[in-house]
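Regression test case RT-17, inverse folding.

Input:
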């Protein structure tokens, strides 16, 4: 998940600093502006996902007219969502701000949890509005000719189950290609409807029902029109629930009810809709541990895994590495309209010797970087950004508590990746959202 950027606009340095500490500790990138002209410059030169806008500045300290005027200005172009803030809280100013396009409003001094909830809610709503409901179907899986016995065996299983309507659970490490395989199952099925994908780990708890089941206009503050949920969008097709293992128990219960009854209601509506779509789920979670600890419902687990397939890591399918590398070189060369370089023998040996902690996704990223950065017609080992093996894989840990071990592994991964969160997540085999939760838990700073 891409780090979201928030612009804090306030003429008081202590306010900006407090919000920077609060929000950066929860994985957000923070930009600052102490005046509206600076805010305009920041919006012009940066991709901003949310603006926290103070309503009063040097020219006027109580009326909020400067902030209101800026909100009017933002209406003239496609701007990120705005949350208004002021130390002079009043109902009339809040109403005026929201009439001019502000998504919400909070007063200073603020409650940290309330502000975090507002930020999370409006960034999620904005992402939902921007993202198309259906996903264009690539044919990548069928373009690749597998050579490893592990993938050839998986291919035979996929071809056998694809034409049924059985629920499928895809398990495996991050980056092994679970999404492409879900696409392939849909493509080879006999379903007439679309393929609809949703990342369950990215849905805030408050928006879970709206995202999956839809909502009626007026169901909550920002429900300005009826919205179709993912179940409805996937009618007669495939609904792909990625990172299903990240769901909390309350969300699991709501999902189970729909899977059992095949019925759901939009938020704010009492009309019952029928869910008629195939369910394909994916996760890198250890379900055996989750079930044993009571963190995942047994009845939901058996609902989603009529067929359970394990996607092998790239380390366990060495015979595919060079064929995939050449496929990605060709793919990225066409994408960036560049000449297609060849792999030298030295490069092939290096690719086969590498441990691939990020699996196929990492291999694709390596080839993309090499195609873009190389000035020659051949690629050598020096063209690849190989990372050393994680110290965690070669250093024996002394006996310690699980929390201490987790903290030590996080610090080692962050050091090894030069404080790059995405690379650290690849080294540990977890998602970005999962590593951010752990960094926050142990108060480990990221860039």
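Golden output:
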């Amino acid at each position: 998940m891409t780090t979201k950027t928030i612009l804090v606009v306030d003429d008081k340095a202590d306010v900006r600093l407090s919000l920077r500490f609060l929000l950066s500790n929860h994985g957000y990138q923070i930009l600052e502006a102490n005046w509206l002209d600076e805010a305009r410059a920041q919006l012009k030169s940066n991709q901003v996902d949310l603006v926290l806008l103070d309503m009063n500045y040097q020219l006027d300290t109580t009326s909020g007219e400067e902030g209101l005027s800026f909100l009017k200005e933002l209406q003239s172009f496609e701007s990120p969502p705005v949350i208004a803030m002021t130390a002079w809280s009043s109902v009339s100013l809040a109403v005026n701000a929201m009439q001019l396009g502000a998504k919400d409003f909070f007063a200073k001094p603020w409650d940290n949890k309330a502000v975090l909830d507002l930020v999370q809610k409006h960034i999620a709503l904005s992402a939902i509005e921007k993202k198309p409901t259906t996903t264009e179907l690539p044919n990548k899986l069928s373009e690749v000719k597998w050579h490893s016995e592990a993938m050839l065996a998986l291919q035979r299983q996929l071809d056998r189950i694809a034409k049924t309507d059985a629920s499928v659970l895809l398990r495996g490490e991050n980056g092994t290609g679970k999404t492409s395989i879900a696409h392939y199952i849909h493509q080879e099925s006999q379903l007439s409807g679309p393929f609809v994908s949703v990342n369950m780990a990215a849905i805030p708890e408050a928006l879970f029902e709206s995202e999956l089941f839809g909502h009626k206009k007026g169901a909550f503050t920002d429900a300005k029109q009826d919205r179709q949920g993912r179940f409805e969008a996937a009618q007669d097709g495939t609904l792909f629930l990625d990172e299903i293992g990240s769901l909390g128990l309350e969300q699991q219960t709501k999902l189970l009810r729909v899977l059992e009854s095949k019925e759901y209601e939009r938020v704010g509506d009492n009309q019952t809709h029928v869910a008629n779509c195939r369910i394909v789920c994916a996760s890198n979670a250890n379900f055996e541990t989750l079930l044993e600890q009571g963190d995942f419902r047994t009845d939901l687990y058996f609902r989603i895994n009529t067929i359970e397939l394990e996607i092998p890591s790239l380390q366990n399918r060495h015979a595919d590495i060079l064929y995939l590398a050449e496929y990605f070189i060709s793919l990225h060369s066409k994408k960036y309209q560049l000449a297609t370089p060849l792999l030298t023998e030295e490069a092939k040996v290096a690719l086969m010797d590498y441990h691939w902690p990020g699996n196929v996704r990492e291999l694709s990223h390596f080839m993309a970087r090499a195609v873009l950065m190389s000035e020659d017609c051949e690629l050598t080992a020096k063209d690849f950004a190989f990372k050393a093996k994680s110290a965690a894989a070669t250093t024996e840990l002394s006996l310690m508590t699980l929390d201490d071990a987790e903290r030590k592994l996080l610090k080692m991964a962050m050091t090894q990746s030069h404080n790059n969160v995405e690379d650290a997540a690849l080294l540990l085999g977890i998602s970005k959202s999962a590593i951010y939760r752990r960094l926050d838990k142990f108060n480990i700073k990221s860039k």
